[in-house]
């Protein structure tokens, strides 16, 4: 998968290509990352990318010309999806990460900055995405979150594909508890069923734990999961 990012601080994305399984995915060619700075597409001597808002108000607004120029300069794959990082977008969920990983050869992530961006920039995006009901100084952290979440779903990134199936939110429930050695630590015991060798009993216990955790910790997810059953 090819991933292109429009950002005024492209250097912020360098660690993604250097660390952990995501970094290995980039180094092995599972995914490729290209960053584009709209400032490089300005035409004035000051490389100006922002301006005062029409109608007055606090802060500066990201200008449309350099963003459009940067976007139009990106080579487009046949299957491409452009995403705009904005707190007005749809809250990010696991099924969207899976959808983008499964169905697209290229993602273009547009990061806002300053007080906001010129409204016409929205026209470049197929979807608007938010991490939640809060405000950040720019769209870089949301974009990095999407990159991490999508790339880890690409075949070959994670060693065991089965681990992706059992994760929280994949099937609508939170993940069950995990334990490893030692069997006893500071008076806390690993549940006997996990040491029993009875795979059927272990599977039933894990399902029960998923349901219990979801019901107690995320009643909203629990209600949604029940409605789908």
Largest sheet: 5 strands, parallel
Roughly how many Å is the radius of gyration? Answer: 22 Å
* Structural class based on helices, strands and sheet pairing: alpha/beta
How many domains?
2
Overall pLDDT level: 94
What is the count of DSSP helices, taking H or I runs of 4+ residues?
A: 7
Q: Specify the CATH homologous superfamily of the largest domain.
A: SPOUT methyltransferase, trefoil knot domain
Shape: elongated
Distance separating the two termini: 34 Å
Quote the beta fraction: 15-25%
Spans of at least 5 consecutive residues with low confidence:
none
CATH class of the largest domain: Alpha Beta
Output the strand order for the largest sheet. 2-1-6-5-8
